[in-house]
Amino acid sequence: MQQLDNQEILMKLKSSKQFWDIKKKIKKGFNDQQKIGVNDIQKFAQSCEIEDQLTNLISHILKKSKKRETLKEDQIDFLNTSKIKWTELLFKNLDIVHQKTKNQEEDDTNTDSKLYIYDEKNLLAFLQTFKQQQSSALYQNVQFQSNKLLNINIPLKSSQQILDKYQYLLLQEELQDEKINKIRKQIENEHLDIELEKIAQTFVPNGERCLLYLKYFEFDHQETILQQNFTKLQKECLHQLFYDELLEIDGHEISEDTFYFVFQEQILTCLKCFIRDKTIKENIRIQLQNGIKKEHTEFQLPITGFFPFKNISKYVAPLCYLSTKIHIIYALFKEFFCRYFCFLHAISSENNSILSLCMQIEEIISTNSPKLFHHLKVIGCDTLKLIIHQLIYCFVGDMDPPHILTIYDQIIGHDSLEILVILCVGFLNKYKSKLLLAKNYENVQQIFQELREDKFQELVQFAYKQ
Amino acid sequence: MYNKKLKWKSDFEKSVIIENFLNRGWIKSQEKEDDSTDWNVYWATVWNVRNIFNPKNGFRLNDQQIINHFPNHYELTRKDYMVKNLKRFKREQDKETYEQQGWNFDFLPTTYIFPGEYSLFVEEFHKCPNQTWIVKPAARSQGQGIFLLRKIQQLKKISGTTVTSNMTQLNLVSKENYVVSKYIDNPLLIGGKKFDLRMYVLVTNYKPLKVWIYNKGFGRFCNEQYTTDVAEIENMFVHLTNVAIQQYSDKYSKKHGGKYSIDALKFYVESAYGTEAFQKMIDDIHNIILTSLKSVQAVIQNDKHCFEMYGYDILLDNNLKPWLIEINASPSLTTTTPVDKNLKLNLINDVYNIVLPNDDFSDNQQKQQQINKIGGFSVLYDESLDLMNRKTQKRQSVKIWK
Lengths: 466, 402
Hints:
A: 24 helices; B: alpha+beta; nine-stranded antiparallel β-sheet
């Protein structure tokens, strides 16, 4: 664990607006007193809660400085063994995909397009198998509710807690120019992540978003290093990998998107560098696959420790709006993936994991919109099957880029993916009346094929609508 | 609202025009001849408009007729006339006064009109040995006949004979004029690709000048990564943004048609360059539109029966400075994607809501009132307002893009 010495802590404190506010308050408290001892300051600080504020600030600095280790083992054994099974399944899929690509090279008429290792439907189908196993430990003390797709005994935050946490978004109004300028100055002057998180929760002006993200990830004075690292990775891309082919195929969907087609080449370059980046393994917050080294197979896991999956391009695309420099886009993508998006593909009981997010969505819908929940079940279209694409890809492709980046702001603002739960609930509520009229899965598909425009604030409003 | 059975005529079999007429309940003029006059609303070609206004025809539009071009629109929309008028207007203006009003002329690349200005071009050509030039026929469209030039000898393409820099004049094979401009070789690139902007501007009157600007436009992207490599100088898929050219690229997609909405561009420029950078860019674009229109105000034949919807082509360089490429009198109304169709359908609908509110030809109060926004169009400039109100309008013009 990396320890900061007092000097380093003081430097980090001095980069925080809150520190200077506290200092101002102390100075004011003593007016023009000439002799002030440490005991005097301590007494004063205790009397007006400044000591608590300072303690919190320091402990936050220490907490952030602690080098985060990649989570490998889950607290629930069953999920650890499931991760191994999932990895084995993906290795099999990889063999199938490789065979398909070989067949396509030989036979041009064979245009089987399922050239990916897994997609969100495969992942959800795998998570569904947990219920069938009915391990006694897994279902201990859990009332078995057969109507939910996923209902497993993992520690889960209460749905009400999540709904309450984001309720402040309902009150957000359009800000005046004066207030926006104030926020701009705050972002320029602020360095402490706890303060940046507060700004991200409230409002991020488009022109300052990149700076806020860079500061939050502590990249703001590291451009040269980022550029050098990226250039090294680009050189490694000259040596072709099989996965490059899958990434090129993955890019076809993005190349058809009216908002992202201009970035197609940049996205592919970022992804090719990503799967060659040795630092991913030590930076990623959770292990996605159990890195079994298989004997006698043509392919091993990429150096990142996990397989690229369908639509991985979608995670890069919105970030292309933030900078003209590809090494900056890459650095932001890498950080977002290692901190947050990785959880969307991890078999885990962690709060941010796909399993937890899915269960929370099911819980809210089954409780607050039971009619919809039941109706979807009856017509053979589970709630989660409807929403899994939007959840896993953070609504990229469903919302315009400004709204996607507002989602990313909230993710940083709360250091959590829970905002996706709110938006998924809102999404289902928005289309509730049409869904209740649907008679089968085809009807449901037609609803979502119509031209639609989903917006961040709109879905938040719908999430809280009864 | 639309209860008047006006008669319409169109020289274009375009769904976005015809659907708009039908949606209003107007009926098609039954007269089949090109020169038929039994219509109230005519979306005409520029040639038919010229015929209608030709004094030799002895035809006069009545008070219940409206048409989509001014008689001598070419003063603005032919490349050579546009350059000539802008240069003349610049000479006529007192530079200090013009700049004090917040306007400038610094948006036209150095341009020469052939054959007349050939020797001036040669002089400039030699002063800038590493400069690439772009050669365009003055009166053609869709990228036809355009090429990039680095050696004077390349002009053989248009002269038919060997061309040297010693020559004092240039004889052209065809009778048409050409415009030769300094090529802007540092365009703003997004995703490594060059693009230009198509913006729509409606003029309902030249004297006094009244200009509306549409809040939806798009960038037209090249399909190949941009390069200044001399080996690629003839690769039109790198350099020319016309859809008519790019649609033949094997990377062309029918889903987006290479068209990138102005909303997406706005978001990109704000996010990657900052809000102030976007506002300056927009101010500069507004300056281009107004200066170009003012440059022809004195020469355009104003007519109460006429309005004109222009397609402005603007190129941004890598400093976010906009440059005027050309102004189209008949911007394409072909739709290449569903998004494109939606845009152009609404565009034409809004044009008619402005020029013929409530299908009413009379000089009604609504026309004269200070309505600043109709549909996607906002008033950019209204000379009928007093100076104070015009200044207020200018300050508020950036809100069009919020």
